[in-house]
Amino acid sequence: MRRVARICYANANKINGLGYTSCRTVGTTSALATLPRLQVEWEQLGAAPYLSTQQKRGYVPDNMSTASNCWNCKKDTTDRMLCQHCKHLQDVNTEVNYFELMDFPQTFALEASMLTKRFRQLQSLVHPDKFTNKTSREQSNSADWSSLINKAYKTLLIPIERGQYLLKLHGRQIPQDNSALDKEFLMEMMERNEEVDEANTKQELEDIHESLTKELEEKVKHLSKHFAGNNLEEATAVMVEMKYLLSIQKTIKNKLQSLMGS
Ligand SMILES: [Zn+2]
């Protein structure tokens, strides 16, 4: 384990007019002082996960500090996708922060339509069709970027996934047991489950599903407030409740499917 810093420049570089945050990794603290920056994040990075994709393919950079050098022209590139000098598609860093990747502020509240727009822009930049006549390294990089962008998009799009990802960035996670839940809520959930159990018509099930959807929308609003106020404890509690509501919705969907099938 060695201490490295990631330096991010918002809009330091523009590709196809998109302009997104670029990050590079440096090995020493003294290098920080010389670089203009908007945001400096300290991370403990183990070399293995950071380099795994490249290592598997046998493209192992000399050391961590060269991670921001283009593998093709060897020049320093501040753009994490396409080298600004030779335009070669760079290797994927799977540890990249999804918010940075999608060029969104690291907050819970976000506009889904903007996220989808950004997703399409990024997917078009790295689309495998654009690299069919390029080097094999770029072809595999294109597939890697494509799947990473998909994963980042889905994670940030679905509120419960986005919330859990934010918690993870704060070094926390949702507790696996029920100890954090209050008895009243648990009783209510048991009743909800019974209600679903006893519902036998499509209409009954759809009604319960709809009321759960409304409750979930309310929870998402609460979550947004808690994250905005950095109240991670409260945010976690809301997400535990959301998980229950979502699991009841899943039960309803399964039951509806078997109703349709029979
Ligand atoms: Zn280059």
From TrEMBL:
SUPFAM superfamilies: Chaperone J-domain (SSF46565), HSC20 (HSCB), C-terminal oligomerisation domain (SSF47144)
Listed Pfam families: HSCB_C
GO cellular component: mitochondrion
One Gene Ontology MF term: protein-folding chaperone binding
Keywords attached to this entry: Chaperone, Coiled coil
Coiled-coil stretches noted in the UniProt entry, renumbered to this chain: 186-222
Any one GO BP annotation for this protein: protein complex oligomerization
UniProt cross-references to InterPro entries, sorted A to Z: DnaJ_domain, HscB, HscB_C_sf, HscB_oligo_C, J_dom_sf
Chaperone as UniProt keyword: yes
Positions of the J domain: 96-161
Domain of life the protein comes from: Eukaryota
Transmembrane annotation, as ranges: none
Protein family membership: Belongs to the HscB family.
Cross-referenced NCBIfam families: hscB
PANTHER family membership: IRON-SULFUR CLUSTER CO-CHAPERONE PROTEIN HSCB
Record-given protein name: Iron-sulfur cluster co-chaperone protein HscB, mitochondrial
